[in-house]
């Protein structure tokens, strides 16, 4: 007598066997191919043609803001410095809008299209930092006069 489980389903008369299901020594096919996930769409990134005007405007604006403040070009220096600050701010806003369109978000804020609510502490921190930078810039330009 043989020790082990019996294959009663196979030995039963009139039992129907499905082809390819089990052989006496195990499954027919054990070839397992690993699944690979591939993103069909390319990663959304800012391209060079999007970044070049933003970086150029930011550089020109920061130079216009920095040189009159550093070398004090008489009475018109404050106007040029404020114009440079305005151009730098425009470049920063343009950069943020381009990054948002590509799908980037500010650290601590939820992505576009998600149902999460932004944390009020993160928003308060961003507002405080922006207010401090604007106050320092205005204070520095006001000291030129």
Describe the fold and architecture.
With 145 residues, the protein is mainly alpha-helical. Helices cover 54% and strands 0% of the residues. It is elongated and about 105 Å long. The termini are far apart.
Number of helices: 4
Q: Give the termini distance in whole angstroms.
A: 110 Å
**What pattern of helices and strands is seen along the backbone?**
HHHH
Q: What structural category characterises the helix and strand content?
A: mainly alpha
Shape: elongated
- Give the overall pLDDT as a whole number: 76
- Percent of residues in β-strands: under 5%
Rg, rounded, reads: 34 Å
Low-confidence stretches: none
Biggest sheet details: none
Considering the chains and any ligands shown, give keywords for the structure.
single chain; 145 residues; 0% strand; elongated
